[in-house]
Amino acid sequence: MANILITGANGQLGSELRKIGFSALDEVCYTDRAELDLTDYKAVESFVRVKEIDTIINCAAYTAVDRAEEEPEIAAKINTEAVANLAKVARQEDCLLIHISTDYVFDGTATHPYTEKELPCPVSVYGKTKRAGEEAVLKSGCFYLIIRTAWLYSEFGHNFVKTILQLAAERLEINVVNDQFGTPTYAGDLAAAIVRIMENEEKIEHEGLYHYTNGGSCSWYDFAVEIVRQSPLSCRINPVSTAEYPTKTQRPAYSVLDSAKIRNTFNVEVPDWKQALERCMKEIEK
Which of 95, 159, 167, 286 lies in the 20 to 30 Å Cα band around 136? Predict the structure, then answer.
Protein backbone atom coordinates (compact mmCIF):
# COMPACT_ATOMS: atom_id res chain seq x y z
CA MET A 1 0.00 0.00 0.00
CA ALA A 2 1.23 3.49 -0.88
CA ASN A 3 0.06 7.02 -0.21
CA ILE A 4 0.69 8.81 -3.52
CA LEU A 5 0.64 12.50 -4.38
CA ILE A 6 0.30 13.33 -8.07
CA THR A 7 0.95 16.96 -8.98
CA GLY A 8 -0.14 18.47 -12.29
CA ALA A 9 -2.97 15.94 -12.24
CA ASN A 10 -5.07 17.74 -14.87
CA GLY A 11 -2.31 17.77 -17.48
CA GLN A 12 -1.70 15.12 -20.12
CA LEU A 13 0.34 12.72 -18.01
CA GLY A 14 -1.61 13.32 -14.82
CA SER A 15 -4.87 12.64 -16.66
CA GLU A 16 -3.47 9.39 -18.08
CA LEU A 17 -2.34 8.29 -14.59
CA ARG A 18 -5.83 9.02 -13.28
CA LYS A 19 -7.33 7.02 -16.15
CA ILE A 20 -5.08 3.98 -15.61
CA GLY A 21 -5.19 4.10 -11.81
CA PHE A 22 -3.02 2.37 -9.26
CA SER A 23 -3.49 -0.56 -6.91
CA ALA A 24 -6.83 -0.62 -5.09
CA LEU A 25 -4.82 -0.60 -1.87
CA ASP A 26 -3.15 2.71 -2.70
CA GLU A 27 -4.42 6.10 -1.56
CA VAL A 28 -3.90 8.62 -4.35
CA CYS A 29 -4.19 12.41 -4.08
CA TYR A 30 -4.60 14.07 -7.46
CA THR A 31 -3.74 17.75 -7.22
CA ASP A 32 -3.31 20.72 -9.50
CA ARG A 33 -2.58 24.37 -8.83
CA ALA A 34 -6.00 24.98 -7.24
CA GLU A 35 -5.49 22.23 -4.65
CA LEU A 36 -1.78 22.69 -3.94
CA ASP A 37 0.55 25.59 -4.75
CA LEU A 38 3.92 23.92 -5.29
CA THR A 39 5.74 27.25 -5.04
CA ASP A 40 4.57 27.51 -1.40
CA TYR A 41 7.00 25.35 0.59
CA LYS A 42 4.92 25.39 3.77
CA ALA A 43 1.81 24.30 1.88
CA VAL A 44 3.68 21.40 0.27
CA GLU A 45 5.23 20.36 3.59
CA SER A 46 1.87 20.45 5.39
CA PHE A 47 0.07 18.52 2.64
CA VAL A 48 2.65 15.74 2.50
CA ARG A 49 2.80 15.44 6.28
CA VAL A 50 -0.96 15.49 6.93
CA LYS A 51 -1.74 13.04 4.11
CA GLU A 52 1.25 10.86 5.14
CA ILE A 53 2.47 10.79 1.53
CA ASP A 54 5.27 8.32 0.79
CA THR A 55 5.51 8.80 -3.01
CA ILE A 56 5.32 12.04 -4.99
CA ILE A 57 4.86 11.87 -8.77
CA ASN A 58 5.56 15.32 -10.14
CA CYS A 59 3.80 15.86 -13.46
CA ALA A 60 3.51 19.63 -12.98
CA ALA A 61 5.53 21.77 -15.38
CA TYR A 62 5.59 25.01 -17.32
CA THR A 63 5.65 23.64 -20.87
CA ALA A 64 4.90 26.71 -23.02
CA VAL A 65 8.32 26.57 -24.66
CA ASP A 66 8.09 29.81 -26.66
CA ARG A 67 6.32 31.80 -23.95
CA ALA A 68 9.02 30.79 -21.47
CA GLU A 69 11.44 33.06 -23.36
CA GLU A 70 9.23 36.00 -22.36
CA GLU A 71 8.33 34.69 -18.89
CA PRO A 72 11.57 33.20 -17.53
CA GLU A 73 10.68 33.99 -13.91
CA ILE A 74 7.34 32.19 -14.11
CA ALA A 75 8.93 29.20 -15.87
CA ALA A 76 11.62 29.05 -13.18
CA LYS A 77 9.06 29.15 -10.37
CA ILE A 78 7.26 26.07 -11.70
CA ASN A 79 10.10 24.12 -13.31
CA THR A 80 12.78 24.84 -10.73
CA GLU A 81 11.58 26.37 -7.45
CA ALA A 82 8.51 24.14 -7.13
CA VAL A 83 10.62 21.06 -7.87
CA ALA A 84 13.14 22.13 -5.23
CA ASN A 85 10.29 22.40 -2.71
CA LEU A 86 9.04 18.91 -3.55
CA ALA A 87 12.55 17.46 -3.33
CA LYS A 88 13.24 19.14 0.03
CA VAL A 89 9.97 17.89 1.49
CA ALA A 90 10.58 14.42 0.03
CA ARG A 91 13.96 14.34 1.78
CA GLN A 92 12.48 15.59 5.04
CA GLU A 93 9.50 13.21 5.04
CA ASP A 94 11.39 10.23 3.59
CA CYS A 95 9.35 10.09 0.37
CA LEU A 96 10.21 8.79 -3.08
CA LEU A 97 10.06 11.58 -5.69
CA ILE A 98 9.34 10.60 -9.28
CA HIS A 99 10.02 13.73 -11.33
CA ILE A 100 9.25 14.12 -15.03
CA SER A 101 11.79 16.01 -17.13
CA THR A 102 12.47 16.62 -20.80
CA ASP A 103 14.67 16.14 -23.86
CA TYR A 104 15.18 19.93 -23.87
CA VAL A 105 17.96 19.53 -21.30
CA PHE A 106 20.12 18.63 -24.34
CA ASP A 107 21.23 21.03 -27.08
CA GLY A 108 20.23 18.68 -29.88
CA THR A 109 23.61 18.45 -31.61
CA ALA A 110 24.01 14.68 -31.17
CA THR A 111 23.73 12.20 -34.02
CA HIS A 112 22.83 9.20 -31.85
CA PRO A 113 20.13 8.65 -29.19
CA TYR A 114 20.98 10.40 -25.92
CA THR A 115 21.69 8.12 -22.97
CA GLU A 116 21.47 9.07 -19.30
CA LYS A 117 25.27 9.32 -19.14
CA GLU A 118 25.52 12.26 -21.52
CA LEU A 119 25.95 15.76 -20.14
CA PRO A 120 22.97 18.12 -20.43
CA CYS A 121 23.47 21.41 -22.25
CA PRO A 122 20.13 23.24 -22.50
CA VAL A 123 19.88 26.22 -24.85
CA SER A 124 16.35 27.53 -24.13
CA VAL A 125 14.75 29.05 -21.03
CA TYR A 126 12.44 26.05 -20.83
CA GLY A 127 15.36 23.61 -21.05
CA LYS A 128 17.45 25.54 -18.56
CA THR A 129 14.66 25.73 -15.97
CA LYS A 130 13.92 22.02 -16.37
CA ARG A 131 17.60 21.15 -15.97
CA ALA A 132 17.77 23.34 -12.87
CA GLY A 133 14.82 21.35 -11.53
CA GLU A 134 16.73 18.12 -12.10
CA GLU A 135 19.73 19.55 -10.29
CA ALA A 136 17.54 20.54 -7.34
CA VAL A 137 16.40 16.94 -7.03
CA LEU A 138 19.94 15.60 -7.31
CA LYS A 139 21.23 17.98 -4.64
CA SER A 140 18.35 17.42 -2.21
CA GLY A 141 19.39 13.98 -1.00
CA CYS A 142 15.87 12.58 -1.42
CA PHE A 143 15.07 9.19 -2.92
CA TYR A 144 14.35 9.96 -6.56
CA LEU A 145 13.62 8.73 -10.06
CA ILE A 146 13.97 11.38 -12.76
CA ILE A 147 12.30 10.36 -16.02
CA ARG A 148 13.03 12.42 -19.12
CA THR A 149 10.53 12.16 -21.95
CA ALA A 150 9.90 13.94 -25.26
CA TRP A 151 7.22 15.04 -27.73
CA LEU A 152 4.41 14.09 -25.34
CA TYR A 153 0.83 13.87 -26.61
CA SER A 154 -2.46 12.26 -25.56
CA GLU A 155 -6.22 12.50 -25.92
CA PHE A 156 -6.12 15.08 -23.11
CA GLY A 157 -5.12 18.74 -23.24
CA HIS A 158 -3.35 20.62 -26.03
CA ASN A 159 -0.67 18.86 -28.08
CA PHE A 160 0.79 18.39 -31.54
CA VAL A 161 -1.57 15.57 -32.53
CA LYS A 162 -4.70 17.57 -31.73
CA THR A 163 -3.28 20.67 -33.41
CA ILE A 164 -2.52 18.80 -36.64
CA LEU A 165 -5.97 17.19 -36.65
CA GLN A 166 -7.62 20.58 -36.19
CA LEU A 167 -5.53 22.26 -38.89
CA ALA A 168 -6.02 19.35 -41.29
CA ALA A 169 -9.77 19.70 -40.86
CA GLU A 170 -9.60 23.43 -41.68
CA ARG A 171 -6.94 23.64 -44.40
CA LEU A 172 -5.94 22.00 -47.65
CA GLU A 173 -2.24 22.03 -46.74
CA ILE A 174 0.05 22.58 -43.74
CA ASN A 175 3.77 23.36 -43.50
CA VAL A 176 5.70 21.31 -40.92
CA VAL A 177 9.45 21.31 -40.19
CA ASN A 178 11.35 18.27 -41.42
CA ASP A 179 14.80 18.90 -39.93
CA GLN A 180 14.04 18.41 -36.22
CA PHE A 181 14.11 14.78 -35.09
CA GLY A 182 12.82 13.08 -31.96
CA THR A 183 10.35 10.47 -30.78
CA PRO A 184 6.62 11.10 -30.30
CA THR A 185 5.56 9.71 -26.92
CA TYR A 186 2.03 8.74 -25.98
CA ALA A 187 1.42 9.93 -22.42
CA GLY A 188 -0.65 6.80 -21.82
CA ASP A 189 2.44 4.65 -22.38
CA LEU A 190 4.55 6.79 -20.06
CA ALA A 191 1.81 6.57 -17.43
CA ALA A 192 1.74 2.79 -17.78
CA ALA A 193 5.51 2.71 -17.31
CA ILE A 194 5.22 4.77 -14.12
CA VAL A 195 2.52 2.47 -12.74
CA ARG A 196 4.76 -0.49 -13.58
CA ILE A 197 7.63 1.13 -11.69
CA MET A 198 5.38 1.76 -8.70
CA GLU A 199 4.66 -1.96 -8.58
CA ASN A 200 8.38 -2.74 -8.31
CA GLU A 201 9.20 -3.34 -4.65
CA GLU A 202 12.88 -2.54 -5.26
CA LYS A 203 12.33 0.78 -7.03
CA ILE A 204 14.19 2.80 -4.40
CA GLU A 205 17.26 0.57 -4.88
CA HIS A 206 17.15 1.58 -8.54
CA GLU A 207 16.95 5.32 -7.94
CA GLY A 208 18.52 7.47 -10.61
CA LEU A 209 18.00 9.10 -13.99
CA TYR A 210 16.03 7.43 -16.79
CA HIS A 211 14.79 8.16 -20.30
CA TYR A 212 11.40 7.05 -21.58
CA THR A 213 9.90 7.63 -25.02
CA ASN A 214 8.13 5.40 -27.48
CA GLY A 215 10.32 3.42 -29.87
CA GLY A 216 11.80 4.71 -33.10
CA SER A 217 12.29 8.27 -34.29
CA CYS A 218 10.99 10.71 -36.88
CA SER A 219 10.81 14.38 -37.83
CA TRP A 220 7.86 16.62 -36.97
CA TYR A 221 6.96 16.40 -40.66
CA ASP A 222 6.94 12.58 -40.53
CA PHE A 223 4.82 12.75 -37.38
CA ALA A 224 2.28 15.06 -39.02
CA VAL A 225 2.09 12.88 -42.13
CA GLU A 226 1.38 9.81 -39.97
CA ILE A 227 -1.28 11.65 -37.95
CA VAL A 228 -3.17 12.59 -41.12
CA ARG A 229 -2.65 9.13 -42.61
CA GLN A 230 -4.29 7.54 -39.57
CA SER A 231 -7.21 9.99 -39.72
CA PRO A 232 -10.12 10.25 -42.18
CA LEU A 233 -8.86 13.68 -43.22
CA SER A 234 -7.14 14.61 -46.48
CA CYS A 235 -4.60 17.40 -46.13
CA ARG A 236 -1.27 17.95 -47.83
CA ILE A 237 1.71 18.17 -45.45
CA ASN A 238 4.57 20.24 -46.86
CA PRO A 239 8.10 19.75 -45.48
CA VAL A 240 9.88 23.00 -44.57
CA SER A 241 13.16 23.78 -42.83
CA THR A 242 13.50 25.29 -39.37
CA ALA A 243 14.90 28.40 -41.05
CA GLU A 244 11.63 28.75 -42.98
CA TYR A 245 9.57 28.38 -39.80
CA PRO A 246 11.30 30.54 -37.15
CA THR A 247 10.19 30.45 -33.50
CA LYS A 248 11.23 32.34 -30.38
CA THR A 249 12.89 29.25 -28.94
CA GLN A 250 15.87 27.37 -30.31
CA ARG A 251 14.59 23.81 -30.51
CA PRO A 252 16.85 20.74 -30.47
CA ALA A 253 17.56 19.55 -34.01
CA TYR A 254 17.98 16.00 -32.69
CA SER A 255 16.61 14.88 -29.34
CA VAL A 256 16.02 11.14 -29.64
CA LEU A 257 16.35 9.54 -26.19
CA ASP A 258 17.64 6.03 -25.51
CA SER A 259 15.07 4.15 -23.36
CA ALA A 260 17.11 0.95 -22.88
CA LYS A 261 17.95 1.61 -19.22
CA ILE A 262 14.39 2.02 -17.99
CA ARG A 263 13.21 -0.91 -20.11
CA ASN A 264 15.89 -3.23 -18.76
CA THR A 265 15.69 -2.06 -15.14
CA PHE A 266 11.92 -2.08 -14.66
CA ASN A 267 10.79 -4.33 -17.52
CA VAL A 268 8.49 -1.64 -18.91
CA GLU A 269 7.05 -1.76 -22.42
CA VAL A 270 8.38 0.66 -25.03
CA PRO A 271 5.91 0.44 -27.94
CA ASP A 272 6.77 1.78 -31.39
CA TRP A 273 5.63 5.37 -31.86
CA LYS A 274 3.32 4.61 -34.82
CA GLN A 275 1.52 1.87 -32.89
CA ALA A 276 1.20 4.18 -29.88
CA LEU A 277 -0.24 6.92 -32.08
CA GLU A 278 -2.82 4.50 -33.44
CA ARG A 279 -4.04 3.72 -29.92
CA CYS A 280 -4.24 7.39 -29.02
CA MET A 281 -6.12 8.23 -32.21
CA LYS A 282 -8.76 5.67 -31.26
CA GLU A 283 -9.14 7.38 -27.87
CA ILE A 284 -9.46 10.78 -29.52
CA GLU A 285 -12.19 9.44 -31.84
CA LYS A 286 -14.33 8.20 -28.94
Answer: 159
